[in-house]
Amino acid sequence: MSAPESDTPPHAAPGKILSDAAKRALVEAAERRKAEKPVERPREVNGRDGPEPVRYGDWEVKGIASDF
C-alpha cells in the first residue's frame, strides 16, 4: 500500500501547514538541486587514505589525535 500524495514534505513538523510561498520555494529548490551538476574535484596527490578527517571534526597523525 502506498502513502497518499501530499503537498507537505516528508520530514515536516506534524500538523504544519505550509503557505503557498513556502511550497513554491520548496519546488524551486528541488528544481535547482536537480539541475545542479555534481562538483568535479581535482584528484588529490599524496593525500590521506579514507574519508577526509576534517569533515568529522578531528585529526589523527601518528597516533596523536587533535580535536578542533
What does this molecule look like?
The chain contains 1 helix and 2 strands. It is elongated, with a radius of gyration of 21 Å. The protein has 68 residues and is of the alpha+beta class. Helix content is 24%, strand content 12%.
Strand segment count: 2
User: What structural class results from the helix and strand content?
Assistant: alpha+beta
Order of strands across the widest beta sheet? 1-2
Distance between the termini: 47 Å
C-alpha-based Rg, rounded? 21 Å
Query: Regions with pLDDT < 50 over 5+ consecutive residues?
Result: none
- Order of H and E elements: HEE
- Average of the residue pLDDT scores: 76
Strand content: 5-15%
Shape: elongated
Summed up, the helix count is: 1
Largest sheet: 2 strands, antiparallel
Residues in helices, as a percent range: 10-25%
What descriptive keywords fit this protein?
68 residues; alpha+beta; two-stranded antiparallel sheet; 1 helix
How is this structure best summarized?
This protein is 24% helix and 12% strand. By secondary structure, the chain is an alpha+beta fold.
List the topology elements:
Elements (H helix, E strand, L loop, with lengths): L19 H16 L22 E4 L2 E4 L1
Antiparallel strand pairs: 1-2
